Amino acid sequence: MDRILGIDLGTSTSEIALLKDGQPFVIPNHLGEHITPSAVGLSDAGKIIVGKEARDQLLLKPEDTVIEVKRLMGGVETVSLGGKEYQPQQISSFILSYLLDCARKYLDEDIDRAVITVPAYFSDTQRRATVEAGKMAGIKVERIINEPTAAALDYGLEHMEDCQNLLIYDLGGGTLDVTVLEMFEGILDVKASSGNNKLGGKDFDRRLMDYLLKRFHAQYGLDVSEDKRALMRLREEVEKCKIALSQHQEHHLLIPFFADVEGKPVSLEETVTREAFEGLIKDLIDATQKQIDTALADARLSAPDIDLILLVGGSTRIPYVQNFIENALGKSPQSLVDPDLAVVRGAAIQAGILNDQLYGENDLIITDVCPYTLGISVLDYVGGFPVTDAFDVLIPRNVTIPVVKEKAYGTVVDDQTEVEINVYQGEYKKASHNNFLGKFLLQDIPPAPAGQEKINVSFAYDVNGILQIEGTIVSSGERANLSIETTGVEMVEEIDTEGWDKLPNARRFKAIIRKANRMLDNGKAGYYAVEMESLISKIKVGLVQDEELETLNELKDELHDIIYEMMEETDA
Ligand SMILES: Nc1ncnc2c1ncn2[C@@H]1O[C@H](COP(=O)(O)OP(=O)(O)OP(=O)(O)O)[C@@H](O)[C@H]1O
Ligand SMILES: [Mg+2]
Question: Whose CA is nearest to atom 2 of ligand 1?
């Protein structure tokens, strides 16, 4: 069978799953374990090894072992393995190949398609690198989905009938994601995501390591920060200590023969209390208030609007993290999903949706957002003076995806024959302060006075979170502008949904109407006008058959009318 699998390619651990009889099923690896360390190594025989086997040799052969490669995805830095340099996506492809191999053996069938999860806050280049890793592993990546969205799907499958606002706090080995979404009748509507790609359990380990190294230095006057082997051993013990402190108030750490002091071996021995550990990581966790605030503000919600908080990722087991979230949101987080497996289970559900394995009452829909502001650098005029390096936004952050945005720009000098389009991602007004994504040149603009020739720039951000940019010289006639008709003006009293039950998407349409009514009841008509447009566009995308589009458009018109009517009433 042409099955699609779900894969969580994590910083520390990775998992693979499929949808079986309507439920996610996590496939055990060759060792019978559901969780595989994201480690790649070279065996004594020079063979690539993955998972526990590679993780186990880290101490003995650090130069033949790679961990945490996810942190390098999409970057230019390579990793060395057995003296050979590899791109991060190649290393990731070994992990994927291993997981796929386990699945093939377990299921006894060929697998060549998968859904892979990435942190919501992964950039375009990081996503592309992930797709590439899939290709290198010989599979087609059918969809890239955001990890918190996957976790929400796992929760959503069991709570189809609920209507609530969720906040997902996902803190793993290397990344933090805070996502706010609304769930209603099987539709998971992601409102906003905010995060930090460089924060996770590894940073807590590092803090604890630095602390112990300092203590050791104070005790013995010895600096071991250059001793790779000692550091490796310390790192292992530090992670164990951190995990133990999630359960216990203190932990005794002992590393025999840690270093040589004046020719004599000395041990590193220390009792670390939970309180001391919390003091070391407190500022890192407290700083995530920023991501919570941004996600809430972008979702236009405040803390009391959140009905449920879901914790995902191994690092959310730290009691301080749980307390912090409870204080930040005034509500205690729930352990309603498995923090280790929710993401891969959600990936399997998404794979099942793509495979048409979920239908009827279990029909889940997800929408997602682009968490970044995207745009180009332009020449702007401020008070009549030209200002270079201004950032012109095409896609504001947290817009629902997929999205296509197009803007026209004029030439800035007479007889300008070419224009360079520089693409950035970020929140700064000055383009160069943002992340530079890439550039391209448009040439052969017909000579004309400044401003006469127009250049169309279009940004298309797809469901995988991958951006396509296009520029068109308008006068050379390659493209015309598309204008969207505003809706009709006829007044309708009530939405007539008779006969809708027979439509394949009846449930979805009805859910929209229910939502509309709820928002109208709450007096949020104006807000709803915007909201509804985006909702309908989400449902249209690839989910609705042609003959249904007409019904959907009628619905949109009718809802619009009702809203306008209500707004007029409010004004009067
Ligand atoms: N009980 C625990 N207490 C504290 N930290 C823990 C505990 N269990 C696991 N961790 C930490 O959680 C991290 C791994 O979490 P997880 O497997 O969710 O991350 P990941 O999916 O690999 O990373 P990411 O999602 O960031 O790519 C590690 O840093 C690990 O030390
Ligand atoms: Mg994870």
Answer: 243
CATH number of the domain encompassing residue 257:
3.90.640.10
Over pLDDT 70: what percentage of the chain? 80
Neighbouring residues of 422: CB distance < 8 A, sequence distance ≥ 6: 376, 377, 431, 436, 439
Q: Smallest Cα–Cα separation from 508: which of 536, 534, 488, 482? A: 536
- The reply to whether 493 falls in a domain is no
Indicate if 326 and 422 belong to the same structural domain.
no
Residue 473, helix vs strand vs coil: strand
Is 33 annotated in the active site?
no
**Distance of alpha carbon 542 from the chain centroid:** 21
Are 123 and 252 members of one domain?
no
- Note the pTM of the prediction, 2 decimals: 0.79
Task: Say which residue the tokens 């650098």 belong to.
Answer: 377
Mutate which of 67, 284, 315 for ligand 1? The one with the most ligand atoms within 8 Å of its CB, which is 315
Q: Which residue has the tokens 């025989």?
A: 45
Q: Angle at CA 246, nearest 5°, toward 241 and 249?
A: 80
| Annotated catalytic residue 356 | no
Q: Tell me whether residue 101 is exposed, middle or buried, using C-beta atoms within 10 angstroms of its C-beta: 0 to 12, 13 to 18, 19 or more.
A: middle
Q: Which domain holds residue 535?
A: 500-571
Q: How many CA atoms lie within 13 A of 454 on its CB side?
A: 13
* Arithmetic mean of pLDDT over the chain: 83
Q: What is the DSSP letter of 362?
A: G
